[in-house]
Amino acid sequence: MRKLFFLFIALTLGIGAWATEVGDQFEDATSRLKFEVTSLDPKTVKVIANDYEGHSFTIPATVSYLEDDYAVTAIGENAFDGVGSQSNPADLLLPVDWEGSKPAASATLWYGGYFVDYRATAIAAVKAASDEAKNLINEAATGFVGIEDVKQAKANAASALANAQATADNTINAAANMIAVATAKDDAISAIRMATYEALVAIEAAIASLKGDAIAEIELAIVGVTDEDILAIAIKAIEDINDATTAQEIDAVKTLALAKINALVLIQVARQGIQNTEINAMIDDAVTAISSATNTEQIEKNLFDAITVIGLFQSGKEEGKAEALGEMGEPCEDCPSVEVTGQNDNMIKLYNPKNVTFKKE
Asked: Please, are residues 343 and 361 in contact by the beta-carbon 8 Å criterion?
């Protein structure tokens, strides 16, 4: 019993190993062609490249693989590399229900190989056969003009030929139209693909140029800068520019980063020499807000607050005011009357209650 169990497991694993998957490739002994599975539902395959030898190939409508039938729906790109030549083209017969290839001449390069335009050949054969039949009937009738039965037979044959000729002409015209439409469609698709490719190349080149210019501007803005916060903003901006996919994204990242860098550099220069702990804390608040700002308006408002704090502090020192317009939070009788507009709540702490009218935007 135990042996039977392990045999069952082995057989199960063996069956699973032979399950067909998309991408499986196999050779068909009948057509001598190689195929690749393109879909399992519905079951379809396409012809792919192989070391093909010979001068005549027929694409079957279906092929069998691992006991399943697959519809042949396509010929892979360059599947017939090296088959035939322009001076000695090979034969390639497609399934009847295919809309098929795009012959434009008697010997056309299809799928990497040169093949005879079998449609044009078939059409010419039909027309030649119909013309020959007409000539034979005319010749036969001419020799028996005196016999009424033969004359009637001639008339009947001529009528039948006319009907056959009309049908043949319609078939020929339909085939010619189909070939013309297929050729025009393929030419249009090729032109669209080429134009699209050229446009994409141009866009990629333009985007690459914009990225290079934007990164160069940011690198120029941090020349000589040693502040880690400013350098971090520049590094992050360069990463975001490299990840951007549109000109608008690149410009937005560059504009915001340059605004932050210029604001922080200006604050860094302006605050040099300030030792007051509370003043530096207020400036640091503005620096933090600028570093995390998501638009230039926020940057401008916090830059204004920081520069106002620094300016009034320096002004108070120059005029000899005690610790920049008086002690923090205490009235200052000698302080000038000032009206200040800003965004930073710390400015209220710095200038009120004092001879300062503070307007918060």
From this structure: yes
**How many residues are given for the chain?**
361
Give 10-residue mean pLDDT values along the chain (361 residues): 49 58 94 95 95 88 94 90 86 71 57 72 56 64 56 69 70 70 74 76 84 90 85 91 89 90 85 82 87 89 84 60 40 51 48 43 47
Q: Is the peptide bond before 103 cis (omega within 30 degrees of 0)?
A: no
- φ, ψ of residue 44 to 5 degrees: the values are -135, 155
CA nearest to 324, candidates 337, 341, 333, 311: 311
d(Cα 347, Cα 87) in Å, to the nearest integer? 90
> Are 76 and 111 a contacting pair, CB within 8 Å?
yes
At 90, is the secondary structure helix, strand, or coil?
strand
Q: Residues 317-334, buried b or exposed e (16+ Cβ, 10 A)? A: beeebeebbbeeeeebee
Query: What is the identity of the amino acid at 331?
Result: P
Cα(340)–Cα(195) distance, integer angstroms: 60
State pTM to two decimals. Answer: 0.41
For 306, other C-beta atoms within 10 Å of its C-beta total 27
